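SUBJECT: A protein chain and its fold
Encoding: whole-number codes for local backbone shapes
Chain under study, with its fold:
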Amino acid sequence: MSHVIRPFSPDDSIADLTALLHRAYKPLLDMGLRYLATHQSEDVTRARIAKRRCFVAVSGDRVVGTVSYGFPDPWPGVPWFSQPGVASVGQFAVEPELQRNGIGGSLLSFVEDLARQDGVEELALNTAEPAHHLIAYYEKRGYRVVDTTDATMPNYRSVIMSKRLGPGSRGKQG
């Protein structure tokens, strides 16, 4: 599907972005996984993108996907995110009816390239341990499990996954 990736702009609708996140994460909620993106308010969406760089995939005049990228706040109990050279992605979503058309892959490739330009050694993310399909998707893209935790506060254990981007990249934390 033809789309362009660009930064989220002040002219874009927070309400529409929040609704996209809710639609894209609904199958996970149906699995019993209460990711924040399944129910977050517009204020939470606004606050989350204010802390990071948010990008959208646009087809025609419609936002069809999104991802945020940046250096995470330290998470107690999740030391991987506190290491120098580790950035992360989050709020990654594609319209459900447009998934498996390359939009998500192009969003991730975009932020991976941006992270390399920024000198990032590792690009990390977290997802639910029971979301085997998501773990498999990220593994196919070169991400590996580096940790597990229940410190991410939802109703499930999370896996921390990371992809080496640069020559000084880190191995599994010990």
About this structure: The chain has one domain: 4-164.
